[in-house]
Amino acid sequence: MEKGKVDQVNHFFVGFILAFWPLFGNGALSLAQSSYSFCQPELIAYTRQTYGAYNQNWGVAQHPKTRFMYFANSKGLLEFDGSSWKAYELPRKQKVRSVAIDKQGRIYTGALGEFGYWLPGRDGELTYHSLAPLIQEKTFLNEEIWNILITPQGVLFQSFAFVYRYHQNQIKSLHPPASLLFIHQVRNRLLVEIIGKGLYELRGDHYVLLKGSEFLGRETVNTILPIGDSDFLVGTERAIYRYDGSQFKPFNNQLNTFIQQNRLNRGIRIGVDLYAFGTLLDGVLITTADGQVRYHFNQKNGLQNSTVLSMCQEVDGNLWVGLDKGINLVNLDSPIRYFTDTKGELGTPYDMARYGDTLYIGTNQGVYYKPLNRNGTPFQLISGTQGQVWDLAVIDNQLLCGHNQGTFRIAGAKARLLSAITGGWVVRKLNHHPDYLIQGTYTNLCIYRKDARGQWVFSHTISGFSAPVRQLEEDDNEEIWVNKSPNRGIQQLRLSADLRRVEAIKEYREGTFGGPASNLYKIQQQILVTSAKGLFNYKAHTRQFGSAQTVYPWLTSDIRKLFPLEDSGLFLLRQDGSLSWIKAGSLPVDIPVKSNQWVEEYENVVALDTNYVAVCRENGFALLPRMALKQIVSGLVPPPIIRSVTAGDKPRTKRTFQQSNFPTELSFSYKQSTILIMFSTPYYTRPVKYSYWLENSTYTWTPYAAIYQKEFNNLPPGQYVFHLKSNLSPKESTLTFVIQPPWYWNNWSKLLYAALFGCFVWLFYQLHLRRVAIQQNQIREKLEEKLRHQEEQSQREIILLQKEQLEQGLIQKSEELANSTMSLIQKNELLMQLKDELNRVKVRSGSRVSGDDFQRINVLIETNISSEQDWKLFEANFNKVHEQFLKHLIEHYPDLSQGDLKLAAYLRMNLSTKEIAQLLNITHRSVELKRYRLRKKLDLDADTNLSEFMIKY
């Protein structure tokens, strides 16, 4: 199974915080009363460089809804959401001296001449609302508000001279009898020291003196806490008193001595019967209800500064400490305790062991021991063990030490050298030879045996093998597996029956594991090897290694080391330094220890006894109760909070959220396509890892990683859903946002584009229709042209036929005209002959014939010779034949006479002068004269033949 899948299924966080931890109702007490009471809770430091403000932190409060922490810092109001810090400054940049938060989440702060409250603005960032304008006293401007109390009657703002009550948007001044120090709210009562007078109770608007408290007027009362059923602890700068309602008694002499020397400044009650007292000179004390000191934190053992200015217990039970220099968190809620060698006196631990009632630590400087039944006794060096210690092992009630100089047997505070063979890295008891041990050293494999008294003594080295061995295991077939150092491969050894020599060696090189073998283990009777490519197990039937993913799906490829426990539990050290624990049949559970304090390449987790496991660190060790490993808290941690969304590097686009109160949909322009999302989980002592998935952008959940922000670059326009979950909770948070398309690609522009596209399609369609029409027209025109050509051809043929017919008709007409003309000529010639003959007859006959008869015949002949009627008939027939020749001739030559036209017609018919003379019934000379006159009218030169001109005209 892949890491991402395992993490998605698992990560119901381990019960170290133990909201239902029955023991931890006094978890700290049970541990303090154990043998390891010298170990302390974890201290988490936040420096001014971390939170980005000033050193002094005058007040601490936790938001009841968001769980965010707020600090009254000299720079302003500090906000911490578990991932990031932010400082809010007051309008006049005063130092914030006090902070308090009511149940509705309104954050009140006080400063010099100023107090008010903070609420989220439109962009989600806190916005300040001043209440100072409601104050009438001008001297208020010189007062600092050092204390704020949330009471049922209103919010009290207190300086050393004034007390103001804010209720229903009104301010009322509660004038004290004299100068006062601090008001303390205890068991629904308000108690305040009036300087020089004693302890008073504020009842309504009145101050009432507590009898017997007058002596406190000369002291400085810095804390009043409940104790028992009805009593009070009154802590002054020099002592603590118990007040039962009638008298004051010193609380605890030993505690008072410490307080008198170090000046008490703050105090709070934590848990049922624990108290925390902050001093000005020596840090924080945590005591029981009877004053016995449980823990003491100061600059020597982890606090950044020993001057405590403020304290606050968060809802998980952890203690926040505001210091004169920085902020510390005391992880009281976790059952894990720490021993830290702050002075560096012990060196770097490599191994640990509990032997009897003594705890031993093997470091690079030697073996140190500490009797567990004497809490105040420090670790001491065992003489003769100076140098590098590699291994501490308790075998058959004997403590053996593998050392750079050899191997020792340790009893109490004494060490005896068993072997001078250097570098005792690892020792194992042989299962099939219970009276023998096998050890890997710098150079050889060594065998130890029990002597007559049952004590381990050196026996011999195994021949046939020489190599440094850091890890070794024995399998069920009596074969010895060794991991040679450094990264020189895994070997399988078969020893002789007398354990004196190696009879067979089989080596498994890098190619078997996809790279150098890192570590060798025996878990559940199987030989396992880790490498950069994952986990491999030995398969006896094939005598080869194969992937162990199917056998151990919860062991992912990012494992650096495994630490099996005797009860089949198993610790997993991942490549990123995080530690998990797994029980057979369950899923891995994260262990909240720091990932950057391991001893590189020599990481170690040691089972000290049946109750505790130790984790070696660079400057000490972490102590884990085994009972806590079996407790899992599910469903207690809400999903992570998406804190802010910013578009690119433009702060003005930032939207901040206090909880999951973001709008249903955030919108950004297309120019803001780079989105930065920040998130947090306000559980301050747990190592938080996040997995995310951006719907419509990424395809699956990412592996869990210790990040608190994610930037997505150049997102295309569209709607996105950001899914986020942490390893503390299976629930996820979601945020929907939209990247708007550019103006040229929004809904209106798309509608316009659709319209334009429709128009384009319509235009294209119209063009297509036009093109089709043009093509059709072209085809039609071609067809018409073809038809026209055919028709013209036909017409030409018809015309030709008609022409031929006309020509034939013309010829016929011409022939008829010619025949008619010839007939006319012949007729006229005949008539002329008849006339001449008649005249001759008349002459010959003389008077024998009547003259009237001759006259009548002569008139008749004259009438029929070339009459006008004959000419009209001739003209009509001539025009038909010669296409209105005479009409055109008159149009061009309007001066032509009728006689000229007749002559022109006769000339066009190519008649001779004689023939024309006969037709005109004139002489030849008259015809020539007419021809001459006609030529003049036509304006023809002498070279032009008149007959040819008429024929061509």
UniProtKB/TrEMBL annotation:
Q: Which SUPFAM superfamilies match?
A: C-terminal effector domain of the bipartite response regulators, Calcium-dependent phosphotriesterase
SMART domains on file: HTH_LUXR
Gene Ontology terms describing biological process? regulation of DNA-templated transcription
Q: Which residues form a coiled coil?
A: 772-844
* Keywords, in A-Z order: Coiled coil, Membrane, Transmembrane, Transmembrane helix
Q: Where is the HTH luxR-type domain?
A: 893-950
- Give GO terms: molecular function aspect only: DNA binding
Locate the transmembrane regions by residue number.
12-32
Q: Which domain of life is it from?
A: Bacteria
**Annotated InterPro entries:** Ig-like_fold, Sig_transdc_resp-reg_C-effctor, Tscrpt_reg_LuxR_C, WD40/YVTN_repeat-like_dom_sf, WH-like_DNA-bd_sf
Q: What is this protein called?
A: HTH luxR-type domain-containing protein
Taxonomic source organism: Spirosoma validum
